[in-house]
Every structure is written in structure tokens, then in C-alpha cells.
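It would be a great kindness if you could assist me with a short task in structural biology. Thank you for your consideration; the sequence and its C-alpha cells are set out here.
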Amino acid sequence: MRAITRPAKDKPPRLDSSHPVPQPSPTAYLVSTKATALTRGELTWPEPLEPEIPIPGYDLAGYIQQLPSESPTPSRFKTNDEIYALTAFHRQGNAREVSLALEEEMALKPRNMSFEEAATVPLSALSAWQALFVHGKLEANFTDRETLERSTMGKRRVLVTAASGGVGIWGVQLAHQAGAQVVGTSGPTNVDFVKSLGADMVLDYTKTDIADWVNEDRESRCFDIVLDCVGGETLVSAWKCARKGGTVISVAEPPVPKKPATGVEEGVEGVWFIVSPNGAQLARITQLIEEGRCKGCVDNVYKLEQWEEAFDRVEGGHARGKVVLQL
């Protein structure tokens, strides 16, 4: 089969046209890959270098070819089911024509999404879900919006930086659907797009310093949760935007080393985590997508043989949503 492989950690990927097809496993489903999405920086992550021959792309969208030999009866999934998943980083990824996924990693693909659209969801949406609802302690209560709008007592405020990026898109949507007041940051060309996702306010980072904006009226502008998807100086500013007892969650780099010496409220906690595959959480995201309350975003779709162009687009840092490889 065709696969994008990495012969060594210090060498660039390459297209292998005769890579061996993975063997069936007692616990893993054999999946015909239709699409995978790429993530900025993934070629530098340590975990994906563990396999003897690493393969990038940890989002998976496809259909089941074969059940595990030790799958429970009845299995949650059957042959030809259309599924999507985030697969574990320590195994080979999914930029290959046939892949493997565990039952606990998978969910049925949303019926109103193409394979390419579905491939944009798992890693990004699960990162946002776990940031907000696991580490940020926001309640994953998706009551109808009218009820949430009427409930003004105790509404939590969430800031999402790089709100038009892969994780940011989902941070805005999930926080909005859970009833939070959401502010996002983006470049000038994406302000309207981020508003369309449910942000109550979008700040153009080329014109507005977020920490200065908060300091103009800290009482009303501080945030309970800051989800930073940028790192660097943006993460330094993020600490100054959290209210007393708030949480700064970063998916870009560990936040504690970026905590400034001054300007941080008492009791603000910094959280760094690596997203985990979770089919149950992904199934809840599927429901929101099928109800029309959330959506993925495809920046560009490339054929497998165009993988170099795809990685160039990802690493350029200006993708709206996710870059997809189509198989």
C-alpha cells in the first residue's frame, strides 16, 4: 500500500508506494483510510517517533474492513461502518491506505460530514473538549440555546486564542454550546468567521493587545478559562487575562514557565496536557455535529502524493481549520 513514512527522526518524510499492509490484531480494527488531517508541529513530537517506521497523521476517517479477532460479541462496530478516530500517538499514524484503530478510540462518523470533513475533527475537537470540560471544569451541558441564554447567573467567561485554528475553532464552538461567554482572538481576515462559530466578541490580535484590553475593565473582562493555542508571548499575556482562581490551559506549550512575575491574579492555575483518544467523548461531539450545532473546517485537501505541499501549508501557521490528506 501507499504510506507517508519517516525513515529516521532526522530525515524528512517520504512517500513509500510499497509499504506493508498492517496485520490484523486481536484488539485492533482494520480500517480503510479515506482521509487524515495533519497537525502543525507533529513532525517534532517525541511520541510519534516510537514506532520503528513512523507514519504521521493521527486523525482517521474511513470504513471498517475487518473486526478484531477478539472483539466482543456483539461488537459496537461492524464491517463497512464509517468511523472516525484519534489514534494513539505512540503507534503508526494514518497517512496510509490501511490503518488500525482500537474500539475505545473510535466513533461512528457524523452522517452529515464527508470523510474529508470528518478527518478535521477528532484531534482538534478532543483537545478542546478535554481542555474545557476535563481540565477547565466547564460543565458539558448542551441544553438548548434559548435556555442557556436565559440562564445569566454564574455564566463563565472563556478566552480562546488563535480561534480560527484547528483547536481554536472547537474551543469557541464547544464553550458557546455549553453556555459560556466566549471571546476569541484572530487575524483580521478571520474575525467574521470566528463570530459565526458563536464567539460573543472577536479581537483582532494585530490591533488589540488582549492583556491591555482586559486591564481596561478587569471586573467585567477577566476570564474563568483561558484556552491558549499559540504559546510564546501570547501565553505570557494569557496569564494576565485570567480572573482570581481562573485556569490558563495551553495546547501549545507548558504554561507555567511562561507565567509572568507580575500582573497575575491570585490562585490562577496553569494546565498543560496531551490530548488522549476517547471514543465516548467523540461520540458526544458527533451528536453536536449531527444536530447542526458544531462543524469542522477544512482548510485545504491534498492528495497523498501532494504531502509536501500539505505540510508546507500546515507549518505556514495560517490555515483556517485543518489541512487534509485524501487517500
The radius of gyration is 20 Å. Residues 20 and 79 are 22 Å apart (CA to CA). The chain has a mean pLDDT of 93.
